[in-house]
Design goal:
MAGE_WH1, three-stranded antiparallel sheet
Length: about 325
């Protein structure tokens, strides 16, 4: 019986059909590649190889910065650059300016506030000034911010510069605001620094030398410690001639939130409203007293540290004389 052999499919036909079948697949792959690159362009848009976040990521970082600013101000905690980098920017530290500027727009438009950088703490003691001179990389900015109002004057109270923090009652908050504004006014009107003994004497005249109406801070010492912790005032200790000298100065938050403008508003509210001549005399005395602080602040960076004694001794003597005259005038008015 003859053998029947099956014919094999021509090899040449398979070879000819293979390229025809593969051509659409390669064409499809070429058509699918552009959407992937488009997606990458949306996520990371740059021209030099550095990745930048998309619009969605930028919006989220802006929201996080606004939340952080409001939360810090509610607790009267400075908004520090390090916290912004860790809690907001994450792996995008180069986006600080873009996120900060957009957050400022949101705060102004929605909340009537903006972030203001706190000034640097002044070098007041001899040791601090010597350390600043030895430091090769002294920082020129504080890298810390607080919220201040941007509302027009007719929509805000004279002494209100920030939203109320976490307190037990509005009455307690009002008492705290009044007390730290009063202490800051005493310091600025005394030439920028006030000995602790004189501050105690002034607090005694207002019946606040031992107890205060602020909830949770009924002791005056504890309240002053809170003012220092929140940056309203600074307690300076310095040894001069073997004797420890304790003074109070205005802190970074106190200079921004109250400052000379707030002190002027307090003085006008208490002593203003008289005759035209009395008001003019009040303005002259107020400008003279606050002008001493401005001149000292401008001259402080150029002043060289002394080997002995306390800085600006002559100015302190003048401030003491002015305080004594003010007390004498108050006593005459009481009589």
């Amino acid at each position: 019986m003859p053998l029947i052999r099956k014919r094999r499919a021509p090899v040449a036909d398979d070879d000819e059909e293979a390229p025809v079948a593969s051509t659409p697949q390669s064409t499809q792959r070429r058509h699918r590649s552009p959407p992937a690159s488009d997606h990458e362009d949306e996520e990371y848009t740059n021209g030099g190889g550095d990745a930048t976040p998309s619009d969605a990521n930028l919006d989220q970082m802006v929201k996080n910065m606004v939340r952080l600013a409001l939360a810090c101000e509610y607790a009267r905690i400075p908004i520090r650059r390090a916290d912004i980098g860790a809690k907001v920017l994450g792996k995008n530290p180069r986006q600080f300016k873009a996120v900060f500027d957009e957050a400022q727009l949101q705060l102004r438009a929605r909340f009537g506030m903006e972030m203001v950088e706190l000034p640097m703490k002044e070098k007041v003691t001899v040791a601090q000034r010597r350390a600043a001179q030895k430091s090769e990389k002294a920082s020129t900015t504080s890298k810390a911010y607080i919220l201040t109002t941007t509302l027009p004057a007719k929509f805000r109270l004279p002494l209100t510069a920030s939203p109320p923090p976490a307190t037990t009652s509005s009455t307690s908050e009002a008492a705290y605001t009044a007390l730290y504004t009063f202490v800051i006014a005493l310091i600025l009107l005394s030439g920028g620094s006030l000995p602790a003994a004189k501050l105690d004497r002034y607090l005694k005249r207002t019946n606040a030398d031992e107890h205060t109406p602020v909830d949770g801070f009924e002791k005056t010492e504890k309240l002053l410690a809170r003012m220092g912790r929140e940056g309203y005032v600074i307690k300076v200790r310095e040894n001069a001639g073997g004797e420890e000298m304790v003074e109070w100065m205005v802190g970074p938050r106190g200079r921004v939130e109250v400052g000379e403008q707030g002190v002027g508003g307090l003085v006008r509210a208490v002593y203003g409203g008289g005759e035209e001549g009395d008001v003019a005399d009040l303005e002259k005395r107020l400008q003279r007293s606050l002008g001493v602080v401005s001149e000292q602040r401008r001259a402080a960076p150029a002043e060289a540290p002394r080997k002995r004694g306390r800085p600006r001794k002559e100015t302190e003597d003048e401030a003491d004389e002015r305080l004594e005259r003010s007390e004498d005038e108050d006593d005459d008015d009481d009589d």
